[in-house]
Amino acid sequence: MLPPSLLLDRMLENWIAEDLGRGDRTTAGILEGRDRIERARWIAKETGVIAGLPVAARVFQLLDRSARFTPLVVEGDAIVSGNSIAEIEGSLSALLMGERVALNLVMRLSGIAGATRRYADKIADLPAKLVDTRKTTPGLRILEKYASRVGGAINHRIGLDDAVMIKDNHIQAAGSVSEAVRRVRQTMPYPLTIEVETGNLAEVREALASGVEIIMLDNMDRETTREAVQIIRDFSKSTKIEASGNITLDTIRSVAETGVDYISTSAPITRSSWLDLSMKIGL
């Protein structure tokens, strides 16, 4: 979901201020104090999946309280080049000043949603679910994860406080999987869960013996992954299994076929391209 307006507006105000600086010299010079109500339309310049229109609407509303942003498609819709995406009515100055920030955000989020959709579609008929990661752009995490969800993924933890996730460096710091779990359990609040990243079958067995809720199989080959899944299923039917590491569009289906519950990858966010959109005034 999108953050509440109290948080979203704060972020947007900072981004608008970054672009405006000491003022939009071009708009101020052209209008010369003769502002007027105008209409604009957003048009897709390529095929993709749309995400972020509520964010764009808020950009224009912060610049002009009476601005009206009317989506012509629904979040998550597949669109093609030439599609009209939204119509905006408001002061011409607000349209010109908000154009770049609003478009940048929607193009970025739509790119993520489209890439995520391609990954999710690869395993849509299998039980495994696509999960995103914390590899996000600083300052944009909540919006990028929103776009990931629009595209069809399930959000992994938003931050370090959402759940306990013991990774390889944590294990190294503690000395072992079991010791890392023991230490964390002494301080973690109820009802957080514990996930452990494992790189081999010995660590899988140690994580199982420690009673963790989720076991991640990190960078394991398919044969080892299948063996690990069988070991976990024989020991506990309730323990969730996540696979991660070098997941691509070409490999995600074969990973899902090993029987894991979740597949996590940063690729739809870190490797996505922006969806090209444009704004035309007077249409």
Question: What does this protein look like?
Answer:
The chain is of the alpha/beta class and 283 residues long. The chain is built from eleven helices and twelve strands. The protein has a six-stranded parallel β-sheet. A four-stranded antiparallel β-sheet has the order 3-5-1-12, with helices on one face. A two-stranded antiparallel sheet has the order 2-4. Helix 10 links the parallel strand 10 and strand 11. It is elongated. The mean pLDDT is 97. Residues 112-280 form the Quinolinate phosphoribosyl transferase C-terminal domain. This is Probable nicotinate-nucleotide pyrophosphorylase [carboxylating].
Can you tag this structure with a few keywords?
alpha/beta; six-stranded parallel beta sheet; four-stranded antiparallel beta sheet; about 20% strand; elongated
- Mind telling me the C-alpha Rg? 23 Å
The N- to C-terminal Cα distance equals: 32 Å
Please work out how many helical segments DSSP would assign: 11
Could you state the order of secondary-structure elements as H and E?
A: HHEEHEEEHEHEHHEHEHEHEHE
Task: Pick out the low-confidence regions.
Answer: none
Largest sheet: 6 strands, parallel
Task: Tell me the helix content.
Answer: 40-55%
Strand order of the largest sheet: 6-11-10-9-8-7
Tell the overall outline: elongated
Number of strands: 12
Mean pLDDT over all positions: 97
Strand content: 15-25%
- Protein structure class: alpha/beta
Provide a quick synopsis of the model:
The protein is α/β, with parallel strands linked by helices and 283 residues long. It has eleven helices and twelve strands. It has helices at 5-20, 25-31, 53-63, 92-122, 141-151, 168-174, 177-185, 201-209, 222-235, 252-256, 267-270, and strands at residues 37-44, 48-49, 68-71, 78-79, 84-91, 129-131, 164-166, 194-198, 214-218, 240-244, 262-264, 277-281.
